[in-house]
Design brief:
The structure is a single chain. By secondary structure, this protein is of the alpha+beta class. The protein is built from 3 helices and 6 strands. Helices cover 34% and strands 20% of the residues.
Length: 194
């Protein structure tokens, strides 16, 4: 009798499936979550680039216009990710080369700015900055960096079992030069030595 029970293979497939099914489901949920994040990232990137192109045109530097552009990006994201939160940021620079820390004379050759060293004050705030950008859309011929961060709930709530947070954050950024829609006087940056 015992030999017959030990030799019986009926139900072995069911037991194997019961052992492997949770692992397979977790792997599939992780894969679907990763694919969904890639899809949401592609939608956000396209929406941000479209809004940034609109922002480079004349008459689009007012706060109400910029808020409408942000709303257009979010409207494209809502069908993809419900219950999302977002944060946008616009900074403008004098040119593409200005999207870097302000240059300085490294008198002691330590490769970092120290008080007392001379620097080019690109944004005119009388202090050395690692990011010399100013908030807003800027004017004609300025380069605007537009960034949008979106946080939304994950596709599967069980991702916590894999050690992942319950929300997903994605962001997209683009830099475009505003159209030459007006005259803009470009002054050379002031060199300041303190």
């Amino acid at each position: 009798m015992m030999r017959r029970v030990l030799g019986d293979r009926r139900g072995a497939t069911l037991v194997e499936f019961a052992l492997l099914a949770p692992v397979m489901l977790l792997l599939l949920m992780g894969l679907f979550d990763l694919c969904y994040r890639s899809y949401a990232q592609a939608i956000l990137t396209g929406a941000v680039q479209q809004a940034a192109r609109r922002g480079t045109l004349e008459g689009n530097s007012g706060n109400d216009t910029l808020a409408r552009m942000d709303a257009a990006v979010i409207a494209q994201m809502r069908p993809v990710a419900n219950n999302l939160t977002w944060q946008s940021n616009r900074k403008y620079y004098r040119g593409f080369a200005s999207i870097a820390p302000e240059t300085f004379d490294d008198a002691n050759h330590n490769n970092r700015y120290d008080p007392g060293e001379c620097f080019s004050d690109i944004n005119g705030n009388k202090r050395w900055d690692t990011d010399p950008g100013n908030e807003g859309q800027g004017g004609a011929n300025d380069v605007t960096v537009y960034t949008m961060r979106v946080t939304y709930p994950r596709l599967f709530p069980l991702t916590g079992l894999m050690g992942l947070p319950p929300t997903q954050e994605i962001s997209s950024s683009t830099a475009l030069k505003n159209q030459p829609y007006g005259s803009q006087g470009v002054n050379a940056p002031e060199t300041i030595c303190t």
